Batch of 4 targets.
Target 1
Amino acid sequence: MALAEAILVCLTDRPMSGYDLAKTFDASIGFFWRASHQQVYRELARLRDRGLVDSTEIEQRGKPNRILHTITKSGEEAVYQWSLKPCKMPSIKDELMVKFYALENVDIPALREQLGVRIDQHRAKLSAYFRIKERFYDGKSLNVAQKGKLIALTMGISNEKELTITLENALVMLQDVEET
Amino acid sequence: MALAEAILVCLTDRPMSGYDLAKTFDASIGFFWRASHQQVYRELARLRDRGLVDSTEIEQRGKPNRILHTITKSGEEAVYQWSLKPCKMPSIKDELMVKFYALENVDIPALREQLGVRIDQHRAKLSAYFRIKERFYDGKSLNVAQKGKLIALTMGISNEKELTITLENALVMLQDVEET
DNA sequence: CTTTGCTATGCAACTATGTGCATACTGTTG
DNA sequence: CAACAGTATGCACATAGTTGCATAGCAAAG
């Protein structure tokens, strides 16, 4: 399970609470690995049991207390060991594509609508990527950690760009089908 | 759960056994929705319970008997109703990207190796798509069902092409990091 | 002064997916 | 003739992920 490793990776940057991590999985690392807050809290408990993170409660006034999680030496070792193992192909599960595959049994105006929504989602993601790139990486001298994040970001950008174009083309192809 | 719908979609084409379906989920529709044979058999049992497929055992000599599944009227209706509902964004879970994100804590030669493997996988998929396109779709007059499959295939092709290029660029960017 | 939203953590139940195994017969290859 | 690959179905267990809920206090907006 790579959720454990994704959490550990986030904690190499700085100690975080479950809440911080959940937000991180909704943005930055969440671009490559999505997880809900429930998943994060559950996995943190396991990591604590396995001794890969240290958890300390921090008193706060006016807000609920936070539990700050710090990666341990064995946590860092676990990340390194994981990095040596081959990685799985991301599993493909795309309803939109299945609907195209089933075009004859599908409501085409509804599909057109859903395709439009999907295009907007990719465009939104693309502009989010750009904002991050401009803000944190453009015209700055970078260390290895930052260079890695920039490579991931760059891959994300070109992927989203291409997906947008591909889906726009599909919209045109769909129009051809409707005209017959 | 869209596995049910993906199976029903396959059965709109022709009645199939679980074994046939499992193979289909390893190729054609499997390009957009992966499922193992166990998942397929389990889901078929549920579809049978819900009256969305009819299952009949066929006697065979020299081979185990097959159970042939045929989509029912309510099965077809279920596909149509599903087509009206908005579809989820495919969930993103890509270990390779997480490893780039964690570049400082990762073994870079191992990552380079894994990146090479991934590039080969995309190239293999691309040529599989091309073979199918040439064999079944090029220079033929197509009905709506076939046009839909061709659109899906065309999207698959441009996506795999772009992914290959993106990952090759990442290989170059990784080299830059290693040289410093 | 009530509603909404943010910070902060987590349980319980459910659905989905993956891994390993079991069975059983046939045809082909070495 | 033994070993392996292919056809065909399926159970049991384990891991992963989703949905809904519960708590609880503060700040800001209407």
Target 2
Amino acid sequence: MKKSLSIKEIAALSGVSVATVSRVLNDNGRFSEETRQKVLKVIKENNYQVNSIAQTLRSQRSTTIGMIVPDIKNGFFANLINQIEATLFTRGYSTIICTTDKDSAKETAYLKALDAKLVDGLICISGQEYLDLSVMSRRIPLVCIDRNPNVKGEVGFVQSDNLTGGTVASQHLISEGCQQIAIVSKSDGPSSIQKRVEGAVNEINQHPNVNYQLLLSDRKDLSNYARGVDIAKELVKQTQPVDGVFATNDWLAWGIIQGLKDHGVHVPTQVKVVGYDNDDICEILQPSLTTISQNIPELAEEAANLLLKMIHIDNGNDGVIEKKRVPVELIVRDSA
Amino acid sequence: MKKSLSIKEIAALSGVSVATVSRVLNDNGRFSEETRQKVLKVIKENNYQVNSIAQTLRSQRSTTIGMIVPDIKNGFFANLINQIEATLFTRGYSTIICTTDKDSAKETAYLKALDAKLVDGLICISGQEYLDLSVMSRRIPLVCIDRNPNVKGEVGFVQSDNLTGGTVASQHLISEGCQQIAIVSKSDGPSSIQKRVEGAVNEINQHPNVNYQLLLSDRKDLSNYARGVDIAKELVKQTQPVDGVFATNDWLAWGIIQGLKDHGVHVPTQVKVVGYDNDDICEILQPSLTTISQNIPELAEEAANLLLKMIHIDNGNDGVIEKKRVPVELIVRDSA
DNA sequence: CTGAAAGCGCTTACAG
DNA sequence: CTGAAAGCGCTTACAG
């Protein structure tokens, strides 16, 4: 591999000291315009590229942040990751994305790797369990999105307003005339999903004439879609038929719709269905899916800004926890 | 931020030199079992974490690879990224994922950042244009997936067998009795997609009784799905109706199916449709989509292994280009 | 089996 | 305005 030039060689070629080259590079400190031109010329001519590793070691700042995410294939996460990364990039930070695949050993290994790489901050998205930061050798600014950290000390916390999301979903079904509502979710979901259920239940409880039942799939072996199909089988067996379903994600919702259809139950005329996430699939399905849309741009912006703020303040160890709650939006389509 | 301990402090606490601590850490060089135990004990007790940045600067090896990808939201890319990253991780490498959003300025900026971070290698996935590596200050092992690099020197090249993919798609339609086939794609697609079209055309040309037409959407403002709907409008207007469609991705295929349905044309009885990628949506749609599945695990494995091989050989500058071509598979479902 | 020392490529007080 | 020098935390010949 061709060796790249160092600041030392640039200095020699420019006839100045390495200190001066460094100053020009960082536009920091005083130097004559003439010197600057001279150095910049040599840098250009030699395609010099600064060595960030050396910078990081020296300055103890990596301008890199680590991002822990359970699953990159999920559309919601992919969007969120993409936007956070884009925001951080415009602010001069690189992002190392670590996909844990919900494997806590992998999560720990990644945390150590990020620690060793001196990342300036950490963003953790969702995840099944409490976040165990005891493996870190340093205290590091941390922002969690939809996840409860078990960390003492300063943690930023950005949440989508899942509680309201559930509430709005129920409200919509009720306003459409539903009186027997099934709330369908997964028994193994993270707290963000449980909040959706909680919101939906709370709302229904405000309406004495509306009943609900909770159906939690524990079929970890199935995809969300397949779980929905599976749950639909339960639904059609019931003596008191449901007329509304709130599913805590869109794939689940679509599985339910298809499962119901297989049993001759039509959506939305016989049963109305509301999903969650406003996944890309919502628009292309027939019936298209009524759903709750999370504000991904705002979640990304809040998380990135909060982390950057924490990095720059770097007050280190007082236990202040900043929280942001980002609104959601009901999107009405054909299914309810 | 709490400062982490250095090897120097571990050395002091263990009563040995930093050299010895380093040896124990890397299990490299000779030392007594007693020394090892002593040092390891201190490391454990103090939750010592090695500083990879210092290691990298010293050894000029970062055990980090960079990955340039056009779009993380695309299911095919997301899967591929995920699997490459997982493979590299088991081999001790971290992966920095850089999403270019098809913006070449962003691509250049990322390339520079990766260069500055001393990544040991680079994987580039797809992308619209030739890859411009002139911004790199070093020669670096590079593997391209479905992308033509314009680089002199050693480049690994892993491709999905897009040509055969197109061929197989046509074959299937023909074997299902189609005689008027529309090949639908995007005018702005990368070469990997053009290969699919080429394969499909070649195959049809083998069959004198089968005709085809090529429809390329140039509506960059539309999603793939919307482009499909749009194209379907063209299709139904034609005097000689088509009875088969090959679309170069699944979302496009689904748009066509929905567009045809809107005009009263039924799939698969009147028109048969084959998509490409075997996206997660294929199974949940009705009709479910017949498609060409790329072998993502093998693509990931080949790319990762090839890159690792190049890194370890590091022969640097002979112009050998390794190529791998990964087979695809026809998956027959309801739409054709 | 172990240590002293050089050096990876930078930044930044300190001195002038 | 500029340079000499220390030091970030490691690894690795070299010497013993």
Target 3
Amino acid sequence: MSLASERAKPGASSKPTLYKRIRLDIETRILTGEWPPGHRIPFEHQLMARYRCSRMTVNKALSELAQADLIERRRRAGSFVRRPQHLSAVLKIADMRAEITALGRSYGYQLIDCRRRTATAADRARLGVSMAGKVIAITCRHSADNVPFAVEDRLIDLSTVPEAATADFAREPPGSWLLHHVPWTEAEHTISAVVADDRTAKALDIAVGAPCLVIDRYTWRSARTVTAVRLHYPGETHRLVARFKGG
Amino acid sequence: MSLASERAKPGASSKPTLYKRIRLDIETRILTGEWPPGHRIPFEHQLMARYRCSRMTVNKALSELAQADLIERRRRAGSFVRRPQHLSAVLKIADMRAEITALGRSYGYQLIDCRRRTATAADRARLGVSMAGKVIAITCRHSADNVPFAVEDRLIDLSTVPEAATADFAREPPGSWLLHHVPWTEAEHTISAVVADDRTAKALDIAVGAPCLVIDRYTWRSARTVTAVRLHYPGETHRLVARFKGG
DNA sequence: TTGACTTATATGTCTAGACATATAATCGTG
DNA sequence: CACGATTATATGTCTAGACATATAAGTCAA
């Protein structure tokens, strides 16, 4: 067959490398449905013969497919096409300046309020901590082409990030500052919808009762809470878009 | 140093395999911030000496880190820690039954309307196709513990998925049917917020004017449109939650 | 029939080499 | 000094082996 007769040597005539071609061949068969979920793909030794290459080369292709969750490998049993990934979506939420400039719009930032205080009970609940330490509470607004884009309410746990006490949040948005100063290990996003209350409506320059998209993001470093942030976006004009390839 | 003195043999005393340990060591240094973005990690030959293993073993660890976008590899220059992934979030949106049963609630499904027709101008715009073919338009509702969970408005392009003409959408939700019968290659999600109109409010058993989370999902197989679906969730009770590890 | 033991086998990991290739760094030259 | 050619080097890919290990499948005894 044609694939076997094309010599499988590095610089023979094929542009991509061999293991990539093997991976792509298999990927294609899976995505077109030729090999449906549950189908057992050829054993490594069969692919070795098919592509006239060593087992390591085949193994590299299959390992990457396994890492991408397209196939499942089971010892002694073989490699199997996995069930489609249940429409799992990858939604990228970049930091605000990147998000806005990526849209080709000019970024603006206004600090509305910034205060340092001993954590109240509400603060502790929001951060998920039990001890009363110092926190910074920030309210600010991000705009695109001078139109309000989102309001941000943020708490930063100073016992995790003491350096934040010296940051100038009038100049730099807290999200950007944290991104560049604090490595995070875990985060949680919650997306919901609300109608604008008085304060939010004023900040976003929309009507009270207008729909808002709300994103709550909690960030941890190791087991320590770093920050909790709530973003309100005008719901009818703002959209979160995620385009992705699936399997 | 301790890592070098522990013998680096497969079944010596270490539980995980060597390349995984190398990968984890590097990952840890990156996530703790010990190796900040831009930092050049040791060359392969240095890691070979450090872990007393062959280059392929080191290479496997580094390749996986590169595949996971934690490092960037440049020929002749070395491997570098990448900038933090700008808080990119992974939001899993499973199919409705899985989503609801994962919450430990019982899944219910009602078909509200299902009709087959030649695509109207509005249908074509929504599907992003120019030719007038046949489509199926479906309205249905998903519920959790007999409480409305989401209303779904869906268009299926019959020229891409002719088999859909024979599916029984009164019995099986169209999302599940498509997931099991049509492999997809690309999708796009858009998340926004609206206030409930009369029809949506009735279907979800909420007040007119209450906030709703809206998810629009378009799915393609290769260059062909498969389906466009719009989901309305009650915004104040429903939340999309995504927890993830970051870098 | 069932449970315990054995065996065959496919994947998992690893080695010590090899050549290919992109490119940072150096060296020459105008 | 600017720019083109050369060189050194780190990664990219590949080979032909090896042993480890989980487990499907077959075997045998209670």
Target 4
Amino acid sequence: MRNNFSLALKKLNLKITPKRLAILEILMKESVFLGPEEIWKKLRTRFKKIGLPTVYRNLEELAEGNIISKINHPNRQLYYYLCPNQSPHHHFICLSCHKVEDINFCILKELEEEVINNIRGKVLSHILQINGLCKECFKERKNGL
Amino acid sequence: MRNNFSLALKKLNLKITPKRLAILEILMKESVFLGPEEIWKKLRTRFKKIGLPTVYRNLEELAEGNIISKINHPNRQLYYYLCPNQSPHHHFICLSCHKVEDINFCILKELEEEVINNIRGKVLSHILQINGLCKECFKERKNGL
DNA sequence: AATTAAATAAAAATCATTTCTATTTAACAC
DNA sequence: GTGTTAAATAGAAATGATTTTTATTTAATT
């Protein structure tokens, strides 16, 4: 596990610092989307003296290197980060437990064609985020959703 | 035109103020997505004394009433607003000229089914934003895109 | 162990957005 | 039209997330 991260960091010419590894470990353990401040609070249990800017900087660097990815939460204006996944822009987000799952999105090609037909321009990128309840939360129907 | 706006405002129990109408006229004229500050600058040519908070407040109220809608721009963290359109969450955004077009999205039902099959939970909402070049900008290939 | 460039802490700055309060104004009744 | 009232506004200040700055520390390499 740690070796994977180290290798990935080396490829990006990022030094392997305890804090950087800790951030990745937190994101890996949680498999939930977290804000910089949430991550910072978790880090402070291990590092008494860690600054919030350090967390921001690291998250940004890791996101640039595609080790983690950035998403939007619909009801907050902050960005959240998440461990690597195959399709960086297709998320299913559980609004109850905040778990993030990839969605198997074979419709995308069709969509792109449809858009090109409508717009007659060029598609460069997209943001697709689907919000709902995951299996478990749907059963429990937490939060009155 | 103005009557349409007045009627819509009345339905929402919002008073018909010159500034409120001006905001709607700007958004209608431009048919491009604009940030609060951009709108504010345009308003100041007509109203010397208009505060940015007034613009924010109005945009928020109008968005709540579905007279305008809010979208995300991928490379800025700000929200942008746009005149009413039929499908509030499906936008095609030209990264060159910032024009916003609706996309005729008949694939959505399929997508929802696909997600439900994968996740086995519940879909509550989604954000779909497609970025690219509109017909005109694609021809001109502005901005090196 | 010494060197060097990157990473960090801490404080301060920035920037978008929101809140607060006193004043103004639109809507409505007369 | 004039008066009344609740909503809208200006302007200043507050907020809150994020970024920048600078001096110090540390990881990587020799």
